[in-house]
Amino acid sequence: MENSSKDIVIKKNNRIFFLLFIIQPFLSLVLAIRHYRLSSSRNIVWIFVAFTGLTFVISNSGIDANRQRETLVAIHNSEITFSRLTDLLYDEDSGYVDIAQPIIIFLVSRVTDNYQVLFAIYGLIFGYFYSRNIWYLIDRSGSFIKKSSLLVIITYVLIIGFWNLNGFRMYTAAHIFVFGTMQYLFEKRIRGVFIAASSILFHFSYIFPVTILFLFIVIRTRVSILFWFFIISFFISELDLKIVRDTLIDILPPIFHPKVVSYTNEGYAESRLEMINQMRWYAKFYERALIWSITGFLIIFYFKAIQYIKRIPGLYALYGFTLLFLGMANIFSTIPSMSRFILVASLFAMAFILLTLQNGPKSQVLRIYSPIAGAGFTYFSIMSLRIGFDMIGIMALIGNPVFALFYNIDFALIQLFK
Length: 418
Fold this sequence. Notes:
The structure is a single chain. By secondary structure, this protein is an all-alpha fold. 71% of the residues lie in helices and 0% in strands.
């Protein structure tokens, strides 16, 4: 009887959340986070991401979102057929090697040329995997989230936040890869490997982490070896781009060759380095603060909690994969655009840190180090939100889906601080 009454209360609260979302989405998001154990909370986050897509602000003409808007309009006004589009996929002349986005844009273009609708669809896809990855950790974190773990999960949420709809291909692929890989690591589900591999359909460069996942599955190397590989990776500061380029061209089909040449171009590498050097210090080092904070935890847990980690197969597998992925990402980060995989690998690292902090043994070293790492996580989180404010519209906070469908207020949150 008691369980029946509890189920009725939960169902009632779930309905209230969804009704509130129609009226005031941001308030429903706040309540969903507050009551994160309710079954509807993850779905509120999911549809809120779609709503932020509907209210997405293209803050300047140079960002990827503007090119997608122009592509949508061009295809909407063209007479291209779906059959013709499929002919262009994996075609050397078209250069379409990321097939998911062209298909989505084409389907939306048959209905409208409104980029807000396109980004709402982006949000539905991105938001599903984003919300599921968050709750995958929450569901394995015990009966409650400890105060000492709050900053860790906040940072996890912000590493590749929902405003990254701007880079829909790269960052949706990231959450798909995490979604599938976590299922394999913790549940040994082979379907998780296939889900992770499907990230390649969104961004061809995910051949890199998918290969690492296959390597991890095949070699089954001890964590002790992976740990020292991870440490050594920080001292490998440069790769010969020509050797990497020639090797990849020998391995990959011709359709991928233009992308490989672009990614391993020495001139592009130099221009990226120059651009980074021109950044203000606080924008230049925030990702580095995240990595060094993560590294400290990975080292402490190796020496102080490895026996506990070994007793939990899923956590042990996650630790090993994190060390391998981060180590490989460190080595290949000297290649233009490949440094983005450090953030993807960081999602696994933060998941490991959260689950170990929640349920693992405590030590004096950990108590001393946690506030230090917390400063790095806070720095990263503030900077990540600052970037997000360029693309999150004011309507995401004060509007609702009905109003947003008819009125477009192109006002980014960052404008409130200027």
